[in-house]
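Complex record, two chains
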Amino acid sequence: MSLGHQGAAIRVAGIVKHFGDVRALDGVSFEVATGTVLGLLGPNGAGKTTAVRVLNTVLLPDAGRAEIAGFDVVDSPLEVRRRIGLAGQYAAVDEHLTGRENLRLIGRLSHLSRHDAAARADELLADFALTDAADRMAKTYSGGMRRRLDLAAALVAHPPVVLLDEPTTGLDPASRLDLWTVIEQLVADGTTVLLTTQYLEEADRLADRIVVIDHGHVVAEGTPNELKRRIGETTIHLTFADAAVAERAVTVLDDLSVTRPVADPLSINVPLLGGPARVRDVLNRLGDAGVEARNIDLHAPTLDDVFLALTRSGS
Amino acid sequence: MTLPTAEPRARIRPVAHSSIGWAVRDTLAMARRNLTGMVRVPTVLVFSLVQPVIFVFMFRYVFGGAIKIPGRDYVDFLMPGIFVQTVTFGAINTAIGLAEDKGKGLLERLRSLPMSRGAAMGGRVLADTVRNIVIITVMLLVGFLVGFDTGTNVAMVLLGMAVLVFFGTALAWLFVIVGLTVANGEAAQAAAFPLLAPLTFASSLFVDPSSMPDWLGWWAERQPVSITAEAVRACMLGGPTAGPVTSALLWAGGLSLVLAPIAIRRARRL
């Protein structure tokens, strides 16, 4: 029995998962087409990790269905486990084993022959620039090296579906870029990836589609561009000496969709439409009217804004 | 760092074995992984020997003179008790190791692999059984150094060690459950002591239970730690062995049969 259209490597339909009174997932549905990347975005506690744990067969959902490559996670967990690779925010490698031993162990536990497990470990060590450190205990690795080893471990058995739970949380920018490159090449190879992240930038770069969840609900879904359009655009943020001046500025810029933050009567926001020329335009008009701004900055939408915007529109 | 994409690699395929064949292989792979950790971080092994050695010196030389065991040198009575105590407290390491694996997300990864059900826990218990054999051997040598005199032959001493190892395995299953239940290594340690103290001290390990108040003596004679100690004494010191050894093995086997399935079930879904 199939849940949706052909060609989806991951299908999630109406998954509900409670922990006591907390509804970690409250009827979440999405699909990931084969060979694409889905970015699952959400703040801490939104249910991202719970969704991954249902898909990797560790958690039993209370209701709903989930399939990986056509196999139900509840009815055929072994078939699902044969088709997934898991890498997470904890970098689950054995510190007392070397990098090579870690990968060979995963290979053996994925039921590769001794020879294949050894050959595959060498291959992955080379791919992930870990050959020089291959025979050092993983506890001597840097954070970035551990994540790479963790990701390599997820790929040992050539899984067609890879689940990445916040793969770059806590990494320095250079290591994050390294890991992004690897994930991109993985996808170029035809692997389907589910990626959870808190970073809009990461989802923007890697994901074909994005699902935003909050409090166990899907609150938005679309391509990164669609989502960004929903969130809004960069704004010009102006601050004035007092509320009366701010009020006058609003009048002067009346036709530019000016808004005033409720919490900050000294400020106004002007959407940056039409590019940098809008800044000059705004300042000229204020100057002509004799309205002096104390401060100006440009504010690009952050993930915080995404969630604020989405939860506000949802309620 | 590149992931070559141009030439597709030969797809490697899982090897076909019977499910029992894989259960054995997976368990051995996990046991080997755990033993590697033990060898590379020997401090854990060393520390699990420090405490029993201190107990040997304390009871042999500090309290021993004040404890009279009819018909026996106290050191001969003491050492089998020390062996049981060593195995019992050593089982805490099973819980600590598992709680750490859980905390690091390693168990999560193992559960997402197509490995055999129970192999992760079975490998842990098997490795801890090997550790027990090493520790018991070392403590036997310590015993000889302080004047422990076995009244039987090598075969009977080995049988006594086997009883200890079986008991250790049963306890390892218990502490798998503890390790999977608690949040981290420290909590495992904290949870273990109240579980173990009444078993090791209200027992026949260090003194004759007939010297205790009646209610306590009743418990001390009948609980599995004492029964195991009596079986080990029978094997190593002489006297009738069939009854005590059977009781001890029934306890160990019974506990394992009950606890292992619970532990494996717990490990599959947390």
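Note: The first helix of chain B runs from residue 19 to 40.
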